[in-house]
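Retry 2 of 3 after timeout on previous attempt. Resubmitting structure tokens to design endpoint.
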């Protein structure tokens, strides 16, 4: 079991943000021990997943929609029909994947331009060094 401080260190998410995500319903209420939040490995995986969605640009509203029905594995054990929830989650993830693919294309363009600039500046330095040798 992890404390909120340990989860913060392991995930890079501040304790304040973890409490906020809990408050707005993105994270379920964690277990408590002596009044303090305690997280297990499953909680940690879920927190990392949620943070990954947020960190890659998914809106909090979409994340909230994604998680509003809770853990599907637990629901499925109770023979609850999760078909609509699965479809909704697939749709949200497909939209997010599309946005990520667009971002990746944009980043590739920026990366190519940055590499061209780096090579240009490196060549200018080489030319300056070559000119300095000729002047000697």
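Retry 2 succeeded. Sequence:
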């Amino acid at each position: 079991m992890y404390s909120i401080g340990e989860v913060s260190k392991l995930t890079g998410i501040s304790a304040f943000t973890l409490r906020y995500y809990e408050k707005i319903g993105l994270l379920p209420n964690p277990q408590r021990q002596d009044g303090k939040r305690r997280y297990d490995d499953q909680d940690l995986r879920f927190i990392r997943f949620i943070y990954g969605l947020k960190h890659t640009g998914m809106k909090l509203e979409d994340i909230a929609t994604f998680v509003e029905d809770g853990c599907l594995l637990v629901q499925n054990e109770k023979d609850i029909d999760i078909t609509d929830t699965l479809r909704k989650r697939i749709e949200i993830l497909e939209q997010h994947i599309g946005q990520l693919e667009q971002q990746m294309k944009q980043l590739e363009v920026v990366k190519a331009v940055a590499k061209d600039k780096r090579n240009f500046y490196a060549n200018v330095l080489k030319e300056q060094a070559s000119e300095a040798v000729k002047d000697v």
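Attempt log closed. Residues 39 and 80 are 26 Å apart (CA to CA).
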